[in-house]
Amino acid sequence: MRTELAGKAVLVTGGASGIGLACVRAFREEGARVGVIDRTPGDGVEVADVTDDAALASAVATVAGRLGGLDVVVACAGISGPVGKPVAETTAAEVAAVLAVNVTGQFLLVKHALPHLGDGGAVVLLGSDSAFTAAPGMVPYCASKGAVVAMTRALAVEVPGIRVNCVCPSVVDTPMARGDLGDVLDDPAFPVQQAADVARQVLYLASPASRPVNGQALLADFGMSAR
Ligand code: NAD
How many whole angstroms separate alpha carbon 214 and alpha carbon 57? Predict the structure, then answer.
């Protein structure tokens, strides 16, 4: 597939780690110019918390100014919240924290990026297969990813000229998944994809190759949900 992304201006949140970092590398390999926002400092990272409306607005403006506008926005900043915790022990604050990053954070990113996105721009949000397939002990996370899928559709119909889609991968070998699942990832019977696999899914949704695709959730889960 020719991605036709050379020279494009791309903003990636959460680009300091995992899927975001793989996206940064993949877009750069395609010749795109990439800006990164993350709460974790790093080389070339514009530091901002995606839940901080004013800080995010300023970081997006800085990156868009540096790149001369935006063609593609990828929302990889995310957290998993409580894992393996029964509902009875999960607090309102824990639920709010997950929704703040995974839902409001992605919403605010789109809101602040829109004025910089030209006609034909593409937004790729990070859902998860958890939006479709229950992951036990992760109710707040599953709820947040279901919201991302619904938000994807709602944004796609509201914003003319800009395509909005989301990727919904199953477990990806990243620091987040290592922290949540540990050595399970090394079990050859456990289906695991790599961050670079997800980056290729993102490249597709960001490129003109997916021109008619809008408001969709790309469920990439080795067919597990089809069983
Ligand atoms: P990761 O922890 O490796 O990377 C997440 C990045 O987001 C980090 O660099 C972190 O600093 C940044 N971040 C977190 N909260 C932030 C905030 N408030 N403001 C700014 N930056 C923030 O995680 P990952 O596995 O690469 O996850 C990326 C996205 O992919 C998340 O939305 C996650 O839910 C989703 N996802 C992950 C998996 C998986 O199995 N790893 C599967 C499906 C979907």
Answer: 25
